[in-house]
Amino acid sequence: MTKTFVDTLDHTDSKRHIPHEFEVPNGTASLRVALEHHPHRAASAEYANQVSLTLFDPNGFRGARHNNADQTIHLSAKRATSGYLPGEIVAGTWTVVLDTHRILPPEPLEYRITVEVATEPTTEPSQRYEPGTTAPRGPGWYRGDLHGHTLHSDGAWDVPDFVRFARDYRLDFVTLTDHNTVSGLAEFDSLRDNDLLTIGGMELTTYYGHALALGTREWHEWRSFDGRTMTDIASTILDKGGLFVIAHPRSPGDPACTGCRWEFDEMMPGIAPAVEIWNGIWRPYNEEGLHLYYAWLNEGHRLVATAGTDIHGQPPPEVTGGATNVVYAEELSEAAVLGAIRRGRLYLSGGPDLRLTATDDRGTETMIGGTVASTDAITVHSSWRNTLDGDRVRLIVNGEIHEEIDASHTDEGSWNLAGETTRWFLVEVRDAQGGMRAITNPVFVEPR
Ligand SMILES: [Zn+2]
Ligand SMILES: [Zn+2]
Predict the structure, then answer these.
(1) With a threshold of 0.90, does the pTM exceed it?
(2) Can you spell out the DSSP letters for 170-194?
(3) pLDDT in tens, 56-96
């Protein structure tokens, strides 16, 4: 059986979800769905059109391969194209959705979706993966990445290459967050061992901003329709135990990086518990995102800052040292690492090791992510290792530079802050050009 859908769209059809329903008969063993569209890039348009498919069987999500040049899906009980979930080809009504992330003028976009079903059982070997295990290690500082992609969406690497990258950089934990799919996670989890903890994830890649759902392995509805707001989407993820992180909030948006800039007015930051302030290498949009983060902290939000390489394949050399999350966790397990991140017990680093503690007037010591209850003097202590010549350490109080010192003259600093006027503070390490080298999460201050 073959079914074909043909239509023509123009730029006003950008940011739509266009459903196409088809019937799968009893006894179907495999399915092929192919998208062709033309032009890939309109004449004189600065950027290519960007359209992707999402597939649903009668019971729910079966996959997506966001922004991958190959939009042909092969699916059977045993195997699936990257981005899609192998499994029984259930009889009934299926839906293939065309997600129109970006259609640029002037030419219209013609597309054709072809669906073919076959009854011959596939003879190919099964893609089944047994999850690996990571023996929990005790309390300590653990390094990891919270944002990366494979060819299950628009990355260049397959899952084993991605895991090799994490091992090469001696990460303790790594999260796979492919765009709008979780199909890589079974293989990903099969590759974990005592040296490397794998953490489930997905990047919700919406038309108006990106967010990471961390610590979950199920697909999350990322589309806003029927009155569903981003707050509804985020609260569903939080209710299921996931960590919701606003990703690269000040990334350039349309049209260059369509949907990449966070534009959900109701979630500035709303119920989001965390925001990725360091995406890839330190760039102007990260600096802008940092200012937004400081503004949100000054508004009274207790937000956690995270980093992510957002790696899509072989990194340029300057990325290799960058943007690792260094987390103080009670043990190396998914629950403990994510629990520590939720509490803000991490700093983000491109190399330096950083510590920051605060002691209140009663002698109680608090680490990053914690709260000092004081209206009197607070003693702040920070220390650093592995800084480079020219690096400077800044104590930031309520978003302003309280003091900046040359990191090479000393490897620690102490300050006294007034408990009455201090709302939060943290430490940045900047290089000679002002680029970020490391930054802690804040310590908060509340009146006793
Ligand atoms: Zn993104
Ligand atoms: Zn990403």
Answers:
(1) yes
(2) T-SEEE---BT--TTHHHHHHT-BT
(3) 999 999 999 999 999 999 999 999 999 999 999 999 999 99
* Domain 352-448 CATH assignment equals 2.60.40.10: yes
Question: Which candidate, 33, 28, 40, places its Cα nearest to that of 3?
Answer: 33
Place of tokens 């503070």: 425
When mean pLDDT is compared across 19-28, 153-162, 207-216, 307-316, the lowest value belongs to 307-316
Ion ligand 1: residues, CB < 5 A: 210, 247
Question: CB 74: neighbour CB atoms within 10 A?
Answer: 17
Whole-angstrom CA distances from 67 to 98, 103, 357 are 12, 13, 44
Give CA–CA dist 159/162, Å, rounded.
Answer: 5
Cα of 151 vs centre of ligand 2, distance in Å, is 12
2-118 CATH = 2.60.120.380
* Rounded distance between C-alpha atoms, residue 265 and residue 224, angstroms: 14
Tell me the fold of 129-350.
TIM Barrel (3.20.20)
Domain extent listing, the chain: 2-118, 129-350, 352-448
Which ligand has the nearest atom to the CA of 178?
2
Residues lining ion ligand 2 (Cβ < 5 A) are 203, 310
Separation of CA 448 and ligand 2 centre (Å): 41
Distance separating alpha carbons of residues 127 and 340, to the nearest angstrom: 34
Q: How far apart are CA 100 and CA 111, in angstroms?
A: 11
Q: Which of 325, 372, 336, 359 is nearest to 171 (CA)?
A: 325
